[in-house]
Amino acid sequence: MRHTTNPWVILVLVCLAQFMVILDATVVNVALPSIQKDLGLSEANLQWIVNAYALVFGGFLLLGGRAGDLLGRKRLFLAGVVVFTVASLLNGLATSSTWLISTRALQGLGAAFISPAALAIISTTFSEGKERGKALGVWAAIASGGSAVGLVLGGVLTEAFSWPWIFFINVPIGIGAFVLSLRLIPESIDEHAERSFDVAGAVTATGGLMTLVYAIVKAQSDGWTSALTLSTFAGAAILLTAFVLIELRATAPLVRLSIFRVRSLTAANVVMFLVASGLFAMFFFNSLYLQKVLDYGPLKAGLAFLPFTAGIMISAGLASHFAPKIGVRPVAVVGMIVTAVGLALLARIPVHGSYVADVMPSILLTSLGMGAVFVPLTLVATTGLEDSDQGLASGLFNTSQQIGGALGLAVLSTLAASRSPGTTKAELVHGFHWAFAGGAGFVLAALVLLIVLLRRRDVERIQAVVQADVVPVGG
């Protein structure tokens, strides 16, 4: 494919939009106490400010990947930027919790269009081999580093202005990204794809996942064996079963289930699902610990995450350098071990702790581990596929991150609440210990599954592609 625009300029533009998307997955964490106070949210509903975005983002990523292949990746990317920017404006204008949760969901829909289209644009712009490996290294650093920058920026804007500005800041960025992308990014489309959309699949998948999270959250207050909890879990199971049946029978399914025969893709998605389950909890509970236990203000709490930003950028750069040389699996294994150790250290934070002694070492270790996890898993999930499958593959990979994070946060929030019956600092910290330990457990489970699911011949095939300068189409 020929491009009139320098490929690295295209990379900068799509990474700018992706940075905005990932940033908004965490930017609200530091602002949660301020939002809770202004809009009168209960403790139980507070996590929906995070999960409304993550669930709609994850649930519609699959439709976004499919739509990009059919309608054009650039066209969908631009549409997503518009929806995301408008929703950001509405978020900042929210005067009630219902309004904010609803528009956070709309913002997640815009993100679901942007993210798979952006990754597919990268995959079709750069040939498989060293160039794509470098581009994906930048992408992974932006995707993972954006989470930490969101916490810092959220603190700065909340304390310097007010919490609505964490959303207003997206408006000029979104407008700039739209104008430049409209002019500079070339269109790409799968001309041979079935011209239909599986809307029923997207609705049942998203509805089932949101119902599942709601059931997990409500189980803590209503009891796991209550009629409401059991019926809600049953509703989630019905919706998710319907999704699978729809995909099996649809002429042009949202998820062609046969793609999971690509073992490396399946392994990368399962592993990322579990890793994200632990990572979301790290941001959420660390923000609460810093503000509710150590009495940090939003700005100070946000700045406390600066080491995470630096660490993840450094480790992602090192991982993109070493993965082609020593292998994607060794780099990912080391990254997961370091990440799990960082989360485990947080499981021992004291009530009267200090940032330097008790929080910063864990943040540094977790960040260094995560950069080394994201790069190789992104390579494993997207290498060796035809261009026509890039939208679906990128949608699946991003879905694993968002849905894994949302479900992990729901499970660990419920676990923390069940172990913390009161609201004193000591009781809160006791609950946080269980949440961080659970997060470390999720990462260790991901490590085991990576070793079990990713076979030697899968690794050798991926290494051969990553180390090659250019791989012929279909090669």
Describe the 3D structure.
The chain is an all-alpha fold and 475 residues long. It has two domains: 7-187 and 252-467, Growth Hormone, Chain: A; 198-251. The protein contains 18 helices and no strands. The protein has helices at 7-39, 43-46, 48-71, 73-93, 97-125, 130-160, 165-168, 170-184, 199-222, 227-249, 263-293, 298-303, 306-326, 328-346, 355-382, 390-418, 425-453, 456-467. α3 (48-71) packs antiparallel against α16. The protein is globular and about 55 Å long. The two termini are 16 Å apart. The model is unreliable at 469-475 (pLDDT under 50).
- Please report which band the strand proportion falls in: under 5%, 5-15%, 15-25%, 25-35%, 35-45% or over 45%: under 5%
Taking the alpha carbons of the first and last residues, their distance comes to 16 Å
The profile of the biggest β sheet is: none
Average pLDDT, all residues: 82
Question: Uncertain spans, ≥5 residues at pLDDT below 50?
Answer: 469-475
Structural class: mainly alpha
The CATH superfamily title of the largest domain: MFS general substrate transporter like domains
- The dominant shape is globular
Q: Spell the H/E element sequence.
A: HHHHHHHHHHHHHHHHHH
Number of domains: 2
And the CATH topology of the largest domain? Growth Hormone, Chain: A
| Corresponding CATH architecture of the largest domain | Up-down Bundle
Q: What's the CATH first level of the largest domain? A: Mainly Alpha
The count of β-strands is 0
| CA radius of gyration | 21 Å
What is the number of helical segments per DSSP (H or I, 4+ residues)? 18
Binned, the helix content reads: over 70%
